[in-house]
Amino acid sequence: MTLPARREMLLIAFMQASNCSNYTGSWRHPDTAAGFLGLGYYQDIARTLEGARFHMAFLDDRLAMPSVYGDSYAEAVEYGVRVVKLDLVPVITAMGLAAPHLGLGATYSTTYYSPFHVARLFASLDHFTNGRAAWNVVTSLNDAEAHNFGVAEHLEHDDRYDVADEFMEAACALWDSWDDGAVVYDKGGYDGGGGRFADAAKVRRADYAGRHFRARGPLTTPRPPQGHPVIIQAGQSERGRRFAARWGELLFVIFPTAEGCKAYRDDLRSRAAAAGRGPDAVKVAPAVYVVVGETEQEAAEKLAFIDGLARPVDSLALLSEVFNYDFSQHPPGEPLSDEVMASMTGLRGFLDRVVQLSGNANPSVNDFVRWSGRGTLRELPVFTGTPEQVADGMEAWLASESCDGFVLAATHIPGAYEDFARLVVPELQRRGLFRREYAPGTLRDNLGLARPGRA
């Protein structure tokens, strides 16, 4: 039997510019650094990731504290449930200065910003980093975020994606309002009257007019080095998949099994091809935890310790946040009614997951905690054991074409990244599953994504 050729995987680090990593109990870990309010903290992480040849780090964001559970932020503040959320632009700028090859992604909402603002911001970042910028496109989740922007109520799930479609159309039109090479910068001698800065024929208005947004343009920033920044997207609901198939390039997903992730990847590649983009226009990378040790016993002890850091309030606060629904209103074992289920306006794909895995159209609060795994290690697949065992698990997902790589969610920072870089990356490289050096060029070049032409 002829074995399939080994593919090199993509490796992306998933971060929070906050008091914790992705695992909410991580701030309690004795090896978690406490310097999250200083630039050096993020620069050290960037150097670690670049030294391990990660393709990119991208930072998640919310525009409010978790405050839906019990209609209060108090418990989230007391227990450190992702209550600190820094502005991401200075963070990734600092990281980019420290790590000149690492791709850098930031989350920005299409619900509470304007296309001109976001288009200019990411065009500027792409220039500053020589083509290493990525935008994680989200639609925001809950009423707490709406209230921080003076809006009475958050939009319904599908309506948010309708707005996001227009937002992307406007942003792309603005990026394309400059042609490549429009800046001439010919000083034309030193007599003060000659020279030519840019070719006006290569700059035009966007003149975008939609139901939700208008943007005249031109953008005040020349076309980004990558044409457009890399677009990260996480849509898993039916509406989210339609959006991802149209716009997404790096698809960041959560699936508990390789089989589920493969079905998603096959579906999105088919949808992208049907949209005229081609199946290779999308790369699928599931979020995973990795807990690795020099020995199997050491890894097991690490895993047990980390698992014990989570508290019930972590799950309940985060579940209320992502579903825009206060779970404190119900006893833990009470099945939630059809009306309650229909009222949840947050992550629809996440809600579908709970219903599917629980086998219950009306899950209880306990079902939500158990089957979502929110705030615990059960939320994501966990690769654990020795470096060889971790590499075996990752290789199996890649070989089955369930994914194109992985998004490493840290159980604690910086230790989880340092362990992975020191122990797992050399084993992946030894097997020919991961690169030893960066490829020349932009983030797109390193991810194997085509540079978009002008629309």
Strand content: 5-15%
Unreliable stretches: none
Strand order of the largest sheet: 1-2-3-4-9-10-11-13
Which CATH class is shown?
A: Alpha Beta
Please identify, by name, the CATH architecture.
Alpha-Beta Barrel
Biggest sheet: strands, sense, closure?
8 strands, parallel, barrel
Mean pLDDT: 90
The H-and-E topology, N to C, reads as EHEHHEHEHHEEEEEHEHEHHHHHEHEHH
- Annotated CATH homologous superfamily: Luciferase-like domain
User: What oligomeric assembly is this protein in?
Assistant: single chain
Question: Top keywords for this entry?
Answer:
single chain, 455 residues, alpha/beta, TIM Barrel, two-stranded antiparallel ribbon, globular
Protein topology:
Layout: E1 10-16, H1 39-51, E2 56-60, H2 74-78, H3 88-98, E3 103-109, H4 115-128, E4 133-138, H5 143-148, H6 157-175, E5 183-186, E6 196-198, E7 208-209, E8 214-215, E9 230-233, H7 238-247, E10 250-253, H8 258-274, E11 283-292, H9 296-307, H10 312-323, H11 338-343, H12 348-358, H13 365-372, E12 382-385, H14 387-399, E13 405-409, H15 415-430, H16 443-447
Parallel strand pairs: 1-2, 1-13, 2-3, 3-4, 4-9, 9-10, 10-11, 11-12, 11-13
Antiparallel strand pairs: 5-6, 7-8
Helix pairs in contact: 1-3, 4-6, 6-7, 7-8, 12-13, 14-15
